[in-house]
From TrEMBL:
It comes from Anoxybacillus gonensis. Pathway: Cofactor biosynthesis; coenzyme A biosynthesis; CoA from (R)-pantothenate: step 5/5. Catalyzes the phosphorylation of the 3'-hydroxyl group of dephosphocoenzyme A to form coenzyme A. Gene3D superfamilies: P-loop containing nucleotide triphosphate hydrolases. GO terms for molecular function: ATP binding; dephospho-CoA kinase activity. GO terms for cellular component: cytoplasm. This is Dephospho-CoA kinase.
């Protein structure tokens, strides 16, 4: 199990796509979190019970921007949301892991932004951190999500600093450069780990 982590908008999904191109399966914690918070998802009702119906959009779905504005501005509220969503994410991640094991997959990637924050290091054998400097992170996050600098900072500050995460990694991919440079670093790392042949 390779734990793929980093900060918000540091490039985890970009690297996850490179793993998929190599036919290495990826379990995506964000995708599971989106699924369980959708209408009829397991976390939908508990979230409304905790945060009220004001966080819903006209279709009755959770308005992610509204809920984001609440939880990234208030650590207590974020902890309440985490307490609802994270156990469900963990359950589904482990189920997917079991399925891949049954299929005989030798290498599986767990793409999980909060691997260190949630103390889930024990779930994986190697940890790969996708690193960018804060200015690049801020810029890419604002561009991708249409956030103001203030909205982007609130999200970056809700996570362990990337400088700390890179120190805890078994390998670091510096994603400040081009996608091609990132791909080269990934392939070098996977050859070193014996996942790819030279
Ligand atoms: C607050 C929500 C609705 C905002 O939705 P939004 O579409 O804007 O963001 P999305 O879910 O796509 O997450 C984007 C990134 O934000 C960061 N992030 C999300 N939740 C958190 C959190 N609780 N703490 C710190 N960072 C977080 C992650 O880096 C993630 O990759 C949503 O992030 C959420 O439900 N969060 C709680 C679940 C969670 O922790 N998910 C991430 C890891 S499983
Ligand atoms: N090397 C790169 N050069 C230019 N843009 C990049 C590079 N890597 C990623 N990006 C862009 O930066 C943004 C963030 O990348 P990505 O979505 O892969 O990050 P992420 O870590 O998965 O984010 P999140 O934590 O929010 O899920 C995306 O818009 C992506 O296209």
């Amino acid at each position: 199990m390779i734990g793929l982590t980093g900060g918000i908008a540091s490039g985890k999904s970009t690297v996850a796509a490179m793993f998929r191109d190599l036919h290495i399966p990826v379990i995506d914690a964000d995708e599971i979190a989106h699924r369980v918070t959708a209408i009829n998802g397991e976390a939908y009702k508990p979230i409304i019970e905790t945060f009220g119906r004001d966080i819903l959009d006209a279709n009755g779905a959770i308005d992610r921007r509204k809920l984001g504005a609440i939880v990234f501005d208030d650590e207590q509220k974020r902890k309440q949301l985490n307490a609802i969503v994270h156990p469900l994410v963990r359950k589904h991640m482990l189920q997917q892991k079991e399925q891949y094991a049954k299929q005989g997959k030798k290498v599986v990637v767990l793409d999980i932004p909060l691997l260190f924050e949630s103390k889930l290091e024990h779930l994986v054998d190697r940890i790969l951190v996708v690193y960018v400097d804060e200015q690049t992170q801020l810029h890419r996050l604002c561009e991708r999500n249409g956030f103001s600098a203030e909205e982007a900072w609130a999200r970056i500050k809700a996570q362990m600093p990337l400088e700390e995460k890179r120190k805890k990694a078994d390998a670091v991919i510096d994603n400040n450069g081009t996608i091609e440079e990132t791909k080269r670093q990934l392939h070098t790392c996977l050859m070193r780990w014996g996942v790819l042949e030279k």
